[in-house]
Amino acid sequence: MDSKTAAEIISSTKDLPEMLLSEAKVAGAQLVEVYQSSTLSRPIIFEGNRLKQIETSQSEGVALRLWRDGRPGLAVGYGPIDAKTLVEKALAISTLNLPEIADLSTGSPDTAAAKRQAFPEKGQAMAVEKLVDLGRGAIAQIRTSIPEAVCEAEFSCDVEYIRLINSTGLDYSFQDTTLSGFISAELIQQDDFLCVNDGTLSRHQLDIGAVADSIIQRLVWAQQTVEPTVGQVPIIFTPGAAWLLWDTLRSALNGKRVKEGISPWRKKLGKRVIDPAITLRQDPTVGPYLCPFDDEGVLTQPLTFVENGVVKSWYCDRAHGTTGNGIRPELGDYPTPGLINLLVTPGKSDLQALIAPQKDAIIIDQVMGEGGDITGDLAVNLDLGYQVRNGEIIGRVKDTMVSGNAYTALNNLIALGSDIGWSGSTYTPSIAVEGLSVVG
């Protein structure tokens, strides 16, 4: 895919933010914020081991927030938008809301130069032909080792442009190019169905060979089905499943939930809450999940949330003690505390070293459904898991559930792995814990 500039991506609506800002002020709004998002994507889709289609999609949306007489209004539009109509919708909604104290970002630091910034573009585009070659090569690699595997895959190069302006004079923009490759391999034998999936994200190159190797290894491990060891046994989470534990901690570190008294860690600042080997942080300058400013126009920053098991800080939006973590879950939502990324400091042992000491253990690789909530309680069915016996993987376990509490597990750490990978926006190693129960 040819690289596109930010101006080319939003060429049809490049003046819309200024038009909305001006129209809202004329209509009587005292404070105004315009958030514009434009994306260009060209996914390459494989089905049944073959290239199925090459698509192109482009979307543009804008969210207008305003305050008139202290009453907030929010309206969202997609594609071609009439500025006056969108302003009228936002003003109509504001009449239904109670007055509030508005708080718009003025830039940080508050200087003329800081108020208007087009941040450096990140990422490098990849041609469609190259993405097709990567997909064909990865599928061939898997089927050379496992000929009966049926593969599906999606590869894409996505360009996203974000612009945020408001009535204080703030004008931030950023363009980001992300490469992605995801593969699933299926094996169907009589009444048994097995699906193994993996993927990678990057801004420059995709290591699809490593993804294919991972899928091959897991298919080999899963070829034999065995009975699981039930009861409380050590549990090893691969990077693809460790999010089950870290998602609970994301909730506990949310500044909004701390302020509301919901987080179990609300009174734990400066105190140890999990195993001292665990350190959690955010760095908005690394990985595929990065951004220079949040959805409220506050500059993002590196943060350490838990250091050696001790709570050091929360992540917040402007309403709850801003750290540059005001994120819109959807374009039409108000900003709320959200993480840019979550980085888990790895240990020194690879996955095999975590497995070797275990007499009986279960490896969780893929799960069905969602993880636990802020209470930490877990009860998940394994989509893909393995039985470890005498330090070796002996086969796949089926119809197996793992339950317990994430906080308990993270206070009963066996070890963190040295292998590390992205699971959503969490960069995590494998992790071995005790304190969870297996039901077969």
TrEMBL record:
<dbReference type="InterPro" id="IPR002510">
    <property type="entry name" value="Metalloprtase-TldD/E_N"/>
</dbReference>
<dbReference type="GO" id="GO:0006508">
    <property type="term" value="P:proteolysis"/>
</dbReference>
<dbReference type="GO" id="GO:0008237">
    <property type="term" value="F:metallopeptidase activity"/>
</dbReference>
<dbReference type="InterPro" id="IPR047657">
    <property type="entry name" value="PmbA"/>
</dbReference>
<dbReference type="Pfam" id="PF01523">
    <property type="entry name" value="PmbA_TldD_1st"/>
</dbReference>
<protein>
    <submittedName>
        <fullName>Peptidase C69</fullName>
    </submittedName>
</protein>
<dbReference type="InterPro" id="IPR035068">
    <property type="entry name" value="TldD/PmbA_N"/>
</dbReference>
<dbReference type="InterPro" id="IPR045569">
    <property type="entry name" value="Metalloprtase-TldD/E_C"/>
</dbReference>
<feature type="domain" description="Metalloprotease TldD/E C-terminal">
    <location>
        <begin position="231"/>
        <end position="440"/>
    </location>
</feature>
<dbReference type="GO" id="GO:0005829">
    <property type="term" value="C:cytosol"/>
</dbReference>
<dbReference type="InterPro" id="IPR036059">
    <property type="entry name" value="TldD/PmbA_sf"/>
</dbReference>
<feature type="domain" description="Metalloprotease TldD/E N-terminal">
    <location>
        <begin position="32"/>
        <end position="93"/>
    </location>
</feature>
<comment type="similarity">
    <text>Belongs to the peptidase U62 family.</text>
</comment>
<dbReference type="Pfam" id="PF19289">
    <property type="entry name" value="PmbA_TldD_3rd"/>
</dbReference>
